[in-house]
Amino acid sequence: MLKKMRWRWILSIMTVLIIFTGCTDDDGNEKSNETENSNGQGNEEQIEQTQNEKSDDSESETTKDDSQKISLSDVEPIPTDEEGLASQKPGPLANVESLFDMEDEIKEQLNKLGPMSEDPGDEEYEKYLRYMYSLVKEDYPNPEDMVKKWEFASFGNPDLPDAKFQFKENYNIEIILDSSGSMANLAGNGTRMDVAKESINSFLSEVPEEANVSLRVHGHKGTGADSDKEMSCNAIEQVYGFDSYDEEDFQNSLNQFQPKGWTPLADALKQSQDALGEFDAKNNTNLIYVVSDGIETCDGDPVEVAKSLSESNASPIINIIGFQTDAEAQKQLEEMAEVSGGIFASANNEEDLQEEFDRAEEVMEAWSKWKNNALGDLEAKEVSSSFDIMELHNKWSFTTMRIDNRMHNVADIASNLNFITSDQSKGLKSRLEPVINEMNSTVDQLEKDLQELREKDLQEAKQSIEEKYNKQTEN
């Protein structure tokens, strides 16, 4: 009996424990489920909130990107008239040998436009066409500079109204050479500096023995770093002359410097003015050639200094050669030539650079003959203007053809990069064709206009062409 009661007691205890354990598990599970449900709901709300924030950020970025995209009004129309082409400055991809090697740069530029829409209208096509043109446009030689070259070629003519173009007993010529860091950039088989040195040496080796020559360099010390700016901007040195040309001495002078730092062009002109102070215009013919590939970077005003130098007692002719310059540098160099009455010439290679020095060589030869009484009564030297007009026409034609080819290349690259479809590329090219045709018609008309001007007196022609082909340097 007692044994049965013990077993019943044990069973009761076990039953209570089982029931208690079951209740505890149920309560615990309920609490755990409540917690999980609570946490799950919180996570879902947090995820949803984060997604909404990301969506808002994405919309904000899209709106921001869209607001930064280029519109049609942001891009200048493509010029097709004589005045517009003559005042055009080169684009960032001008004179690049192969655009297909510049896909990364072109992609960066096209990102400013973004992909063309699926169904573009005329306005969107025009925007793309204008923008592509702005990238590859090139410099057209200005007809005004051609007339100045006629005047320069007539050096020695006593009938020329500007006395600086009349031969004097002494002839002094100074080369002011940019030796900033950018002159180390490649140009053909060497650097820009290599090409410039070779052309300058070749030119000066042909000048008459009686002429005095000088070479002044600037920016040839330090580096392009801000910490070296003061030292580099003060680095201006006359490394040769004024003296007659001596091949060995001049070569040694050329070997003294390499492209290094900044561009103190204004101060270099000031030092040139000081050096020419002893060579008054009454007894001296003074000629300066500035060879530079960049803009003033030492806080000077080379345009103002060039004007002051041209009006000084030495009254030199200041001819400017822009060697593979960008649009900003070309504008400044053109202004320097404009205010000083000199010639600006754009040189993209060694041949162009040598061509400008060859013109000066012809003048030096004429001076030498005059000095030795070989020109008789100094009758005006005939200018081969017909050849100049033909040469200018050819350069305009070739420039238009290059731009046309490069526009087609950019359209193909834009298609490869998925900015436009193949059909849209064809659409751009078809819209380009009438523009190029109009430009070619302008080139042909230019030749006719210049032939008419050729029949006029030099000064009359100069006045007419200055009025028509104003470089708009004030803009």
Q: Please, could you describe this protein's structure?
A:
The protein has about 475 residues and is an alpha/beta fold. It has two domains: about 75-135 and about 390-470, no CATH class; about 160-380, Rossmann fold, CATH 3.40.50. Helices cover about 55% and strands about 10% of the residues. It is built from 15 helices and eight strands. It has helices at about 1-70, 80-85, 105-110, 120-135, 145-155, 190-205, 230-235, 245-255, 265-275, 300-310, 325-340, 350-370, 385-415, 420-455, 460-470, and strands spanning about 170-180, 185, 190, 210-220, 235-245, 285-290, 315-325, 345. The strands form two sheets. Strands 5-4-1-6-7-8 form a six-stranded mixed β-sheet, with helices on both faces. A two-stranded antiparallel sheet has the order 2-3. α11 links the parallel β7 (about 315-325) and β8. α5 (about 145-155) runs antiparallel to α15 and α6 (about 190-205) packs parallel to α12 (about 350-370). The N and C termini lie far apart (about 125 Å). Residues about 1-65, about 375-385 and about 470-475 have low confidence and may be disordered. Keywords: Coiled coil, Signal. This is VWFA domain-containing protein. It comes from Lentibacillus amyloliquefaciens. Pfam families: VWA_2 (PF13519). InterPro entries: VWF_A, vWFA_dom_sf.
Fold topology:
Blueprint: H1 2-68, H2 82-86, H3 103-110, H4 122-136, H5 143-153, E1 170-178, E2 186-187, E3 190-191, H6 192-204, E4 212-218, H7 229-233, E5 236-243, H8 247-254, H9 265-275, E6 284-292, H10 302-310, E7 317-323, H11 327-340, E8 344-347, H12 350-371, H13 385-416, H14 422-454, H15 458-468
Parallel strand pairs: 1-4, 1-6, 6-7, 7-8
Antiparallel strand pairs: 2-3, 4-5
Helix pairs in contact: 4-13, 4-14, 5-15, 6-12, 9-10, 10-11, 13-14
